[in-house]
Amino acid sequence: MVIKKIVEKLKGKKREIEEEEVEIVTPEEEKKNKVYVMKLKDFNDTYQVQNLLREGYVVILSIKELKTKDVSELKRSVDRIRKTVEAIGGDIVGVEEDIIIATPSGIKVER
Question: Residue range 37-42: average pLDDT?
Fold first, then answer.
């Protein structure tokens, strides 16, 4: 009923309504960088690393334990993590011999 009255009043007025471009600026969401440090003990830990990367964590990974245990399993794990990083647009880098840093999208490691 109220809307009907408003429409009738607007129809009665011969005033032109001008179009106007309005820019709406919204504050960006606050991004918090999260870092997770863990040891890669076996191939099953690879799934946790993948999930952490998908959730936006930077993962600092010690590979020493798996390296001494089974090098072929280490290669499979690192290859799977590398593919995940590439798929999400992140970055991966080896630091020294026993540390890997994997990042989600938007975070690059300077070399």
Answer: 94
